[in-house]
Design brief:
Layout lengths: L8 E16 L10 E13 L3 E13 L4 E13 L14 H8 L1 H20 L15
Antiparallel strand pairs: 1-4, 2-3, 3-4
Length: 138
Amino acid sequence: MIKNLSEYFLDEYEFYLQKVSYDKMDNDIDDAENRFQCEDNFQAEVIEQKCVKLIVTRIIRREPAGIFELSVSFGAILTFNPEKIDEYDWHSINVAEEFKLNGDFVIGNLMSRISLLIAEITASFGQPPIILPPIVAK
């Protein structure tokens, strides 16, 4: 586990919207019995020992299934700090798990963007928005 993960990257990051998917079904189900299921997924790819491409996806489903499903993915490209890159073999590390555990320096920004977009999308159909905390779901 790399506790000081931010030291291995330069301070400039590139953030971008990767994907949004929203499917609303026309089912008449009593809202009193609905629950949300929230799932966060992390993908990371080391690109030519120059940078890491990180994608965070939050998926929200309503239970019972069939009311709606929403997923929002944001990505970040982080450039390695050339002075520190050789301290680890980055291809042998589960980089996605490292960011999930110790990547608050970038994950906080991505989760904030995801939470904002989810609130805007869910408010667009005339109901109160679903506002989720911008933290990784446990």
